[in-house]
Structures are given as structure tokens and as C-alpha cells.
Amino acid sequence: MVIQIQAQKESANWYFGETAALDFNSGTPVSLSGSVLFTHEGSATISDAQGNLLFYTDGVSIWDKRNREMPNGTGLFGHKSSTMSALIIPKPGTINRYYVFTIDEPGISNDDLDDGFINGVNYTEVDMTLNSGYGDVVSKNNPLITYDVNDATELEYKSTEKITAVTHDDEISIWVITQLGDTFYTFLIDEMGVNETPVTSKVPTEVPPRVTSDGINLSAIGYLKVSPNGKKIAIAHSSTALGSPRTGTKNSGKIFLYDFDNINGTVTNERLLKNGFYPYGLEFSPNSKLLYATVGNYGSDDVFIEGYLYQYDLFSDDIAGSEVLINKSNYYAGALQLAIDGRIYRAGYTGLSGLNTLSYIGKPNVLGTDNDYQHAKIKIDHGLVKLGLPPFVQSIFKYRFNYTYVCSGSGFETTFSILPDPSEEDPDFTMFWDFGDGTTSTTSTTHFYDVPGDYDIVMELTINNEVQSYKKTINIASPPTLDGAYELISCDAFDADANDGLTFFNLQNLSSANSIFTTDLVQVYYYETLAEANADTTHLNAINSSFYNTVKDQIVYAKVYANNSDCYQIVQVKLTTKDPIAIGSFTRNACAIQTLGIADFDLSSDFKSEIRTKLNFPDDVAISFYETRESAQNGTNPIASVYESSDTTIFIKAESSDACYDVGEVALTVNAFPIIDNRVYNVCPSEFPITIDSGIKGTLYDNGTYTYSWDSSVTVVDGQQSVNDQLEVYQAGDYFVTIYDEVLNCETTIQVSVIEYPSPDINMLVVEDYKLTVILNNPSTDFEFAVDYLNGFQSSNVFTNLEAGEHVLYARDIFRCNIVEQTFYVFGLPQFFTPNGDGINDTWNVLGIEPSKFTSPINVYIFDRYGKVLAVFNPLESNGWDGTRKGVELATDDYWYRFALPDGRKYSGHFTLKR
Hints:
This protein is mainly beta. It is built from four helices and 65 strands. The protein folds into seven domains: 8-395, Methylamine Dehydrogenase, Chain H (7 Propeller), CATH 2.130.10; 399-476, Immunoglobulin-like, CATH 2.60.40; 486-578, no CATH class; 585-671, Sandwich (Immunoglobulin-like); 679-756, Immunoglobulin-like; 762-826, Immunoglobulin-like (Sandwich); 832-913, Immunoglobulin-like (Sandwich). 3% of the residues lie in helices and 42% in strands. It starts with 12 loop residues before the first strand and ends with a strand.
């Protein structure tokens, strides 16, 4: 079978533990500094195909290669104490999109540095084309269902802490695998993205959550790994017994082995490899024939005793019985992780503080104890090792080959190398190479390509009588065509001495006539010596593109790479200087924007022409502007043609093909216009027309030279006219006057609002139980009210304890422009009357009957206590009963009344006559 392998250098950088980091690009791990990661267990790292770090994560935050938090890269749903908190998957079919799978700690204790919830498995998408190539999170915390939604326990815990990935059989798509209870959940990732509907596989043994009284879910702890060839899956359940801490529950773990079908994603054929102790880390050998596990041994009180490293032969008839003890130590069981150098690295520590070393298995394909296990041999110069190591897509660790130098032509030799070294597994292995151009070899790993192009390289290895074939397409590029030496000319204008031949050179600014930045070149790196140019494969020692030469006519060396290739040539570049032409200083004024103290300065073609004219420069001299002198010297970050700024100085750069210019200056000055507030006129309707003004008269700027232009939001009526800063207006509305300062060449616009006071518009008067409520169609706090008396106005529209009878309501605006009135009636029946001729209560009558509502007669009957009718009268036509019968005054006593209104209401009762 021919296998198209992935880019192994995606795993070239590891970030883990407390600021620990390793670089595997050179073939041996090199300790790195600068990491800001602090995690006890899970982390993940990803690099590009060339081994350059892209970003890393603890499952909660994402940091880019500058060790800065990625935009939107916080609040991910992993956990710093989840075994496999994160796993980074390249999106198939792309080179700049990645999925960050996170897996939370599924325990009750999930609250430290976390959101306090059990979030299960989620994925986040990162786009490396954003944020200037440093990456940005474009979609975050997309949940995946990895539990039985009908099972209350699984719904609560959602997942274990286990996740792994391997390439699909098509060598393009990727399987992501996790587990909970008795079910494996396998998600396919392809060019379309993440298929959120998993392939599910039930297995015989169920391992439910086992949560201790201190909230730790012990059965969730432990690694899940798939073999590099995609055929086996191993899982470690650190503990499977339910109980409180310190009761011996930790030594109840299990390791299971399963078959994996990387065509359909199913998990089958369960085998128990270890029953007991506390298993944690797992890893397969590069050839997928051996399995390694770290296991902790705890006493009956759950106190750690010692740790073990075991090996299992997956091709044995009794895999569990093939167990070999590789190492016993006082190290806690930690992660195992295969690296691109073919070794398996082991994390762990003694005590609780972490260590600064890693152990490794040097020959992990070798069966038994001769596999070159080295304990605590890799020194970590920066940070501490804890329990975790970063996982990767497991299939990148299969047998593969690398190649060096990729130029065509007889002078360029391409060398192939096999990783890991197959002789460690079989000293008598054989190989067969097809170099893709019709040439084959069974002995040589070097080849010369005459013609550039893509070549399909096939490597066949026969290891222990088993043939394994691998295919990889490589690109052989044409070496860049360079014509002898080159010269870069810079103005000797960037330091104090304009004649010493020393200045700043922008090494990217080779003139177009001698440019080595042609379309078939992708990148150029510069060095001060030829030896440095040849030796630096990572370009870390290249000089900065802004370079200050140390001697006149200094020679530097350009390392020029062909497009999308490691093919390069080296050429000399002579750095020479030219005396500059002075530009001098200019000024530019602009009007302030409102009251902000800033202005928009016009730096467009007219101003550039003005500079050329003043300096007698030809039209082909390009003029540009910069915020700093250094930017002008380097030609970086030019200013736009409209530049918003306060008072400042900017810098001029002039360029032409045949001259050298000094850096000039432009003093930008903001001209401030008088600060005039918008104006408001409140007007009674009877006061129109009125004269409004701009408000500038009487200010500190009264003596300025101004012109005025009026505009209105309302239709201009006949007779409305403008006189200087004044305008005669006939109606309410918003008026706008633009004031132009002829001296400062500035203008500002003032809004003048004319507001007409409204009149109260009565909707209804509600009278009930001697209380009046005034209902307006236009309620406002600018109205006031009175009843019967014009000197008794109040802001409230409610009047209480009114006397029965006829009243007048008055309503007006608080500015007393308009007043409206309306008569209303308060219906009432007096309780007594005193007919003594003093003009007060001399008669008894029904009060507050509104005449306009009743046209039919109303008869009011008056009775004595014996029911004799004493009087009958109509209250709308009579002043009422005067206390007599047939001209005879009646005595003080209670009397009764009865009447009916035309609308059907009936009234009866009694009152008192007092003398």
C-alpha cells in the first residue's frame, strides 16, 4: 500500500508544563524560552510544515508564536487539569486553518481557573491568515455530543479527559476519537469541516464516572492513543472503583486495547491488558507493534509508592502476558509522547513541584529492555515538567523520509533520509527507492535532478521480512537566476555626517534595475559574511532589513530562495551612498473638527505639486509623508492623503530613479474656530415673526471677519430674510447658520432651534366624587391648571374636595402664552340649608346638574317625616326649596327628597332645615 504522509514537522515544537518548551527541528530536542503556559496536565502545540511554531494552548487560552494571547483566544472550554485538555487538528485541504479540540475536566471540583461548568468536548477554529499572520479565533466552543442524552449521569459529566486523532484511510481526512462509559465517539474532519454526527461504537466494558468525595472523577483520568498506522486504540482508565480518597480506590485502574477501522471509524475487539494499579500515559511505537504505558502504584491509603513504565507486544498471542517492566522509579505516572526524532518521551516528577528533565525511550521499536530507555536525560533549561505532554495527529509518526536541498542541476545533490532509523528495529532491513524520474536505487539515498518539477518519491522498506511502502511528492525547483553582484544605493542623509558613506539601508529596497525580487523568488535573507549565509538554515541570524553599514561600500550577502522551495543561491550586494538634496520645511494649516483640537489635513496631489514647484523638482519625483523620520527613511507606513491630527510635525520623503533626497518636514497647525453653542429660542405663537442670530455677537470673537449662510429645516415663507448673522423667522423649526472665518479659512455650522410653546389641548374632564381630573391630548410638564380663580394655578391636573355646582377650569402653559377654559359641573346634594335671609344656603337644591345634558323636566319632591309633599320644583329652572309651605315657614327638622333624572338615575334621602 502506498501512503501519502502528513508533514511531520507540524509536531516540531512542544509547549507543556510550566513554561517548558522544546524544539525538535534540528533532530534533537532544544530547550526554548518565552513560553507563558502554566498547566498541570494537558496542552497542545502546532507548527507549520517547515517546523515554524504557529500557536499553543492549555485548552483555555491560545497563545501565538510571539507568546501573546490570540484575539478571541480566551475562555475555551478545556481545563488545565484535564489529562488531554486540547488537541490541534489541521483542517484538511487548507494550510492555514486549524481546529482546537478541547476537553473539560468532568468532575465536581471543576471550578479553579474555570467557568464552574462541565463543558465536555468542544472545538474552536483558528485562521492563521488573520492578525498579520499570527492567527485569530473565528469560531469558538462549538459543542460535540459525546454522551447519551437520555442518561442523567452521562448528561452531567459529558465526557472523559481522553481524545486522540489519526488520518483516515484516504490519507486526507482525519478521525478524532473520544470515549465515555461503554461508547467510543469518532468524528470525521474533512475539507468541509467537522462532521458533528459521530460514528459510535459500543464496547463490552462500561467505565462510568467514579467521583470521589473531593469531586475528582478518577475514571476520566488517563490517556487515549491510536497507533500511527491507524489500526489499534489503547485507553487508560486510571481508576474504576467508587470510593472516597485514602481508601485504596486508586489502584483499580485498567488498560484496554481495541482494533480501529480507519475507513469507517469503528472500534472493536476489546482486550484487557492491565487490571489494577493507576495507569496514566500511553504511546505506540512508530511501527505500531509495541505499546508503552506509565502506571502508578498506590498504597491502601491512596498514597503514592512508585511508578512503572511497561511495554506490551501487540503481535503476541498473549498481549497482556507480554508485559515487560522497562523502568521502576519514584516518578508519578506521566504522559508518553512520540516525537519526530523517533523517540518516545516520558513526563512525570517526584513530589508535587515538577522537575526540569524528561526521560525517553531511544529505540521504541525494539522489543524488550534493550530499547535504550534513558531516565531523566533531557534537560529543560526553562520551566518545569509536570504530568502532560502535547499530543498530535498520531499518523504523522509513521516511517517517513526527509530530503535536503531541492535545486535542479548537476551542482545540486538531493539527499534522502529515513526517520526513524529502521536499523533500530531490524539491523538487516533493506530499502528500495524510486526517485520519480525513472531512476531507482537499493543502496543510494542521494540523487541529482536535471529538470525542475514535482516528483513522486516511493520508498519501500523491508523490515523483519515485512514490506512497508511510503510515497511523498517533492518539488525540485530551478535555482534562482542571479547576475553577478548587485548594488544597493541609499541616501547618506540619515545620520549627522552626510559625507562618511555610512547610513541606514533598507535591504528590501533594491532598485528596480538591479532587483533580485523577481516573480520566481519568494524570500531573501541578508548576512554580513558568506559563512553565516551558508550555515544559517533557520534564518535566525539574518541581519535586519533596516541595516546601518559599518564601513563605506560594505559588502553583504543575499541568500535568495526560489519560490516555495528551499533552493537558494547566494549573491554579493554592495552598499553604496549618494549625497542627498535638501528638502527643508513646509507648513500646512487646517480647521479644527468641532471642539476636538484635531483637523483633517489635505496632503493630496495639490500639496505635493506645491512642494515640487517650490523645490524645482521634476514631476516624476514621488512625494510621500510619514509620521516619523525613521518611517520616512525606510519608506514604511506612509500617511494617507487626508490625515487627521492635532498640531504636529510630519516628514517628507522624495524619491526618483536618478536622485537622492534628504528627509523634509511639514509643520501641521490646527486653526481653532470660536466655540459657539447651539442656540434655542422659546416663542409664544403671538410673538412671530422673531429675529434669531448665530450667537457670535458679544463673544471674544465678535471682531472677526465672517460671512454667514443660513439654511432651514422648514419651508421659508415670504418675508423671511437674512441680515448678516441674524434671520427673521415666521415659524418654529431648526435653522442652521454656517459661519465662515475669512482669516483662518475655517467654517462652523450652528443650529438655532425655534420652539413654539404649545397650548393645552383638553381631551376630557373627569368628575367623580367631588374630584376633577384633567385629561389632555398633549400632556406635558409645561402646563398648569386652576379652578374658578386665575390666581390659584397648580402643576397637578387633579383637584379634590370640590364643592358641588358649576365650575370653570383654566389651563395654560407655564410661559403664560395661551390659556384655555372649560365649564364643568360637580353633582351634589346638600346635607342642610339655613333659610334665614342672609344670602348663604337660603334654599335647598340639587347642585351640579349640567343643563346641556338634560332637556326634559326634572321634578324634585320634598316630603316631611309623615310623607306629605311639601314642595315640587325643577332644579334647572328654580333656585330650589326655600323651607316654606304655602308661604308659611316650616320648623327646624329633617326633610326628605326624591327625584329621577331623565337618564334613569333615581335619588332619595333626607337633609336638615336649620333656623
